């Protein structure tokens, strides 16, 4: 008779728990895919449900715009320190949020046109980079602003500028981008891509697979996810943050954590290949 407390029994119980969790994860992922309109077929199966990443909603920030005002977010970016977030969109404002306390903007810079992109200044030391933010507007003008003073310090008209066509290496399916720009962000060290969607969901892809590994409903049916960005911690590819903005001006902040690898969790080689 086997001892219920023996190592073999404990290992079997642990494997059964992993097996049960896989089924729960698979069912949840299939529900999210169905809600987002993703239908699997025999030739291109959905990515395996076992994934080394977990995502948790950390904060939801409502739009600061007045009721009825259009406040679609066009771009998001974390500053080099990871302590601040800049947003831009059709409201003609650059809003600065403190990541630790994002309930409302800590600063706001009014700009002359709708914004299609915002980026913090790279290099020059964290102090300098975190105090200057650049933006591109619908008129083709690129401007850099001093965040503390709220004034432009550099401007260039880019009407004549053009992005050469890139060679397609792999396509990622599931998200919807038929009429609107939905934004995309790459976490290179972790090998993850985030995308918005007109379906109102946030999508995350592993670079190795064409189907999403994580799908999350964002907002009400009339809003779509218009911008996404990763907070990439220097020297740490296991923890990070994902921010997503909607066409209704709502922000959602997710924490991202890499789970134990299947090898560490005691999963066999076949499961590793399917992860």
From TrEMBL:
GO BP of this protein: response to UV-B
Top-level taxon: Eukaryota
Residues in the signal sequence: none
Basic and acidic residues: bias regions: 17-27
Gene3D superfamilies per record: YVTN repeat-like/Quinoprotein amine dehydrogenase (2.130.10.10)
Low complexity bias: start-end ranges: 1-13
Region described as Disordered: spans on this chain: 1-45
InterPro entries documented for this protein: RUP1/2, WD40/YVTN_repeat-like_dom_sf, WD40_repeat_dom_sf, WD40_rpt
Name of the molecule in the record: Anaphase-promoting complex subunit 4 WD40 domain-containing protein
Organism: Oryza glumipatula
Taxonomic lineage of the native organism: Eukaryota, Viridiplantae, Streptophyta, Embryophyta, Tracheophyta
